[in-house]
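Next up, a chain.

===
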Amino acid sequence: MNDQVALEDSSMTICKSHYSTDIGGLYLAKELLGTSHYFVHKSYMVEIRMPSSTEERKLRTAGCHIIDGEEVPFIYQVTIIDIYIKIYQALECINSQDENNVNPNHKLTGCDPNELIGEMTKLSISAFRHWLDIVRLLTKKYRIGLRSRRATSHGHASIIASASEKRICSGPVCFTSMIVKHGIEREIWDEIQSELEKGTSLPIHYQFLIDAEHALEDDRLKSCIIDLAMACETYLRFSVFDILRECPEDIKSNMELANINAFTNSYFKNRVISSQKTKYNKLKNDHLNSLFDARNKLVHMGEVERVTHKNCARFIKAANDLFSISLSLTAMESEARAVSPR
C-alpha cells in the first residue's frame, strides 16, 4: 500500500513568524495599501504589513470619489494586519511531498513547536503594541487601539513559515486589541516609519493620557481623573528637569520634593517661552488648577463632585494643550531655589 505522504530528508531553513490580527477602524489612504513598517523590536527584525488592494477579506472600501459617474475608492478600512518577525536561528524542517496530509506541527524538528509559537506570538503582540504606540504618538489620536465595547475581535496565533512564506506550523486562535476609526495619510505614515527606525518610545505622560482616554470610554471616571493628573504632573516635572539637566544636585533635590503647585506657578511657568505665556496662564487658571484640585480631593477626601464626564473631557483637552507648551532656559538658576518644598 502506498503511503499518502512521503517524507523526504530534513533541511535547515531560515524562517519567520507570521501573526495575523483582526482590527477595527484603521483607515488608510489608498496609496498606503500593501505598504509596511520595518523596525527592530527586542533585537528582532519586525515587519508590520498592510493588506494589498487585492486582499479583499482584509479590508473594505470606506470612501469613494465619483469620477465620470463611477465610484473610485480613495480610503479603505483595514480589518486585518500582518506582523512578520524574522527568526534568526535556522530551524530543522522535514520536507514533505504532500503539504495537505501532514500535521503542520510534526514538520518542525529540533525544537518544541508549541514553545516556539508561544514565544513568537508574545513577541508579535509586543511589537504590535509598540507600533501602535508610535502610531498614536504621531497621529495624536490616542484612542487608536482602544478596545470596543463590542465583542472582542480575535486574531490568529503566530505561524512559523519559511522565508518564502511556506507554512511550517501554526497555533490556535487568540485574542488581541482592536483599533478604532482613524485615517492616516502618507506624510504621517512615513513619519511613523522614521520614528520606529529611531527606536522612539511613547513618553510616560502620553501613556497616562492614553489610559485616561480608555478609562473615559469605559466610564471609569475616577481612574480618568487620576490618570490625567498624572499625565500633566509628569509632563510639568520632566519638562523642567530636562531643560535644567545641568543644574546643581541640591537644586534638583529641592525640586523633586516640591509639590505640583511649585511647578505650575514657578518652575514650569517661569520657563514657558514668551509666545506661549498667555496660553499657559489661561490653561493653568481655567483647567490645570481645577484638575489637580479634583484629583487631590478624590484621593485624599473621597470627594467625587468634580468627577464628571464633562470635566474628564475638558481635562483631556487641557492635557493635550499642555503637551504643546514649550520651555526655554531664560530664568536664573537661583529662581529654582525660590520655592521651598512642602
